[in-house]
TrEMBL record:
<dbReference type="InterPro" id="IPR032781">
    <property type="entry name" value="ABC_tran_Xtn"/>
</dbReference>
<dbReference type="Pfam" id="PF12848">
    <property type="entry name" value="ABC_tran_Xtn"/>
</dbReference>
<dbReference type="Pfam" id="PF00005">
    <property type="entry name" value="ABC_tran"/>
</dbReference>
<dbReference type="InterPro" id="IPR003593">
    <property type="entry name" value="AAA+_ATPase"/>
</dbReference>
<feature type="domain" description="ABC transporter">
    <location>
        <begin position="4"/>
        <end position="252"/>
    </location>
</feature>
<dbReference type="Pfam" id="PF16326">
    <property type="entry name" value="ABC_tran_CTD"/>
</dbReference>
<dbReference type="InterPro" id="IPR037118">
    <property type="entry name" value="Val-tRNA_synth_C_sf"/>
</dbReference>
<dbReference type="InterPro" id="IPR032524">
    <property type="entry name" value="ABC_tran_C"/>
</dbReference>
<keyword id="KW-0067">ATP-binding</keyword>
<feature type="region of interest" description="Disordered">
    <location>
        <begin position="536"/>
        <end position="559"/>
    </location>
</feature>
<dbReference type="GO" id="GO:0016887">
    <property type="term" value="F:ATP hydrolysis activity"/>
</dbReference>
<protein>
    <submittedName>
        <fullName>Putative ABC transporter ATP-binding protein YheS</fullName>
    </submittedName>
</protein>
<dbReference type="GO" id="GO:0003677">
    <property type="term" value="F:DNA binding"/>
</dbReference>
<feature type="coiled-coil region">
    <location>
        <begin position="245"/>
        <end position="299"/>
    </location>
</feature>
<keyword id="KW-0547">Nucleotide-binding</keyword>
<dbReference type="InterPro" id="IPR051309">
    <property type="entry name" value="ABCF_ATPase"/>
</dbReference>
<dbReference type="InterPro" id="IPR003439">
    <property type="entry name" value="ABC_transporter-like_ATP-bd"/>
</dbReference>
Amino acid sequence: MRVVFAENLEYSLGARDLLEGVSLELYHGDRLALVGANGSGKTTLLRLLTGELEPVRGRVHRPEGVYLELLEQDPRFGPGDTVEGVLKSGFARLERLEAELARLETGLADPEVYHRWEELHERFEALGGYKRRSNYESVLKGLRFEGREGERVAVLSGGEARRLALGALLLSGADALFLDEPTNHLDLEMVDWLVGFLSGYGGAAVTISHDRNFLDRVTRRVAWLRRGRLRFYEGNYSAFRAQRAAQEEQEAREYANWLKEKERREGILEQARRWAPSSAKHARRMHSLEARMEQFLQEAPPELEGPDAVVRMRFPVEAPGPGRVLEASHLRKGFGGRVLFDLEHLLVSRGERIAVIGPNGAGKTTLVKVLLGQLPSDDPAGRVRTGPGVRVGYYDQKLSGFDPELTLFETLYRLLGEKAHAALGAWMFPYEAQFKQVKNLSGGERARLALLSLSLQQANLLVLDEPTNHLDLETVEALEQALLAYEGTLLLVSHDLFFLDQLATRTWHVRDGRFDDYPAPPGEYLERRKVAVVPEPSRPAPPAAPAKPQPKREKSKWHLERERERLEAAIAELEARLSALHAEANQPGLTPQDYARIAAEEAGLRERLEGFYARWGELADV
C-alpha cells in the first residue's frame, strides 16, 4: 500500500533554496535512511511529507485515511498527562479500525464489502492492531517505563520525555513512522530492543540518525539529500558509503578522461585554425572540426561536485604525558540505596583508548566524574591520582564553563583574539551565526562549540561523554578521523557502537553495581558476553498429556484473531521471564543448586512456550 507520494518539491528558507525538485514515494514495509549534512533539509522534508509545512512548489499526496507520525526533537505533553495515557494515546485510531472491521464482518458475503474488509484487515494487521497490548508491554519494558505507568509526565527528565515520545510513536498505529534521531537518549540495550521492535512493524519507516550501526540494522534503502537534491541507493548505510565511493571514483575517472580528450581535440582544432587560411580544403576541415567540437562539448559529463564542507578537526597534544596517566583505588558510589560501582583498583596507561558502556542510569558519567575529581568516592579511602604532566580535556556539551549571555564570537575572542572569526568559520559557523548567544545555540552548534574548545586545550587525556549526540554523520566521521589521529589517551562514554568499535581498544562495562574491564572493543566484548549464557540442559521433554476430545465448534476469523492476540501477550511474558533467567545465570557467585533451579525453571518455561508457539502457528495460517 502506498502511504505518501511527493513530487517535485521545492522549499526555501529565507533566500536559500533548501529543496529543489525532490520526489519521494513510500509504501508499507519500506525502510529508508534519510542522510545528509546538518542544515541540508532532512527534517524539513519530513515536515513537508506530514503536512506540517507546505512546499513552495510541487505536491504531496497522502491517500485518504493514511496517518503519518513524526518523532519530535522537543516533545510537549499536557500538564496532567501520565506515562500510560501518552503511550496509549495512539490506540484510538486502531480501535476505530477495529470497529470498522467488526461492522464490515456482517456483510462479508458481498464481494465489494469483502474486498474493503480484506484491505482494511491487512492494514490493521501490518500496523500492529492485533498486537497492541503485547506491543504496549514491550514498549514499557524496552524503554524502561515498567512500573511507572501512573507517573506524571511533568516529572520526567528531558531524555525520559523523548523516550516516552518515541514509545507513543511506535504504538500510534501510523502508516509511516518518521524517526528523527530515535536513538538519542537510548543505551545499547534499548537500541537493540528498538531494532527488534521495528523488524515487526509493517508500515513504512524513514530514519534520520547519526548511529551508523543502527542505520545498517534497520534500513534497506538510503536517500541522500545534498544541495537540494535527493538521490537513492539500494542497501543499508554501509552499502551506500561503498556505492558512493565507487560512484565518485568512476565519475572522477570519466571526467578526467573527458578533459584529456577535450585537450587533444583543442590542440587539433588550434592547428586547423592556423592552417585554414592557406587553402579552401584546410578551411573546410577547420569548420568540420569546430562542429564536432561543439557537439563534443554538448555531450560533456557533469562537472564534478566539490566535496561538502566538513569540520577539519585536530586535537593536538603538547606533550604525550607519563606512562601511568591515571590511577585510582577504593572508588565506590551509590545512589538511592543501590551501589553503582565499587572498584578496588584501576589503572589507565598512556595511549589507551577506553570505551565506557552500560545502561542509562548505571553510573557511567558518575564514574567519569569521580575519576576526574568532580565527585568524591563514598569510600573515605578512595584515591585518584593523575601522573605528572597529565592535562585533562573534558567534553562538556552543557557548556557549563561558558557565559550563556555572550555571543559565539565574544566567547572565542576571549580565547583566540583576532583569530576567532577564522576558527569559527573552520568549525562550520557561518559569519552571521557567530553573533548568536551561547544560550540560543542548537544542539549541533553546542556540540561543535564544545569540541572546538576542546581542540584548543592541547590535552593529553581526552574524556568525551556522548560526543556524537546532535552531530550529523559527516561530522561524526570527521570526529572519528581526528580521534584516530590523536596521540594522547582517550576515555569515551557513548551508546554509538560503530563509533566506539572504530576507536576503543579496551572496554569498561558498568551495570547493576558490577564493573567489567575487558581488553578489546565493546563490540567484541558484547558478542562474547552473549555466548556466555548458560546452555539449556539436554534432557528429554516430558510427554504431553493426551488432549481430551472436544466438540468441534467453528470460530469466526474475528474470534481467532482475538485468541492470537492473547497468545502473543502470553508469549511475550514468557520470553521476558526467560531473558530474566538468562541474566540471573550470568551473575557471579551462583552455586550448583542455583544453576539446577534455573535450568529446571527454564525447561518448564520452554515447554509452555512450545505449546503456545504451536497454537500460534495454527492461527497464523487461518
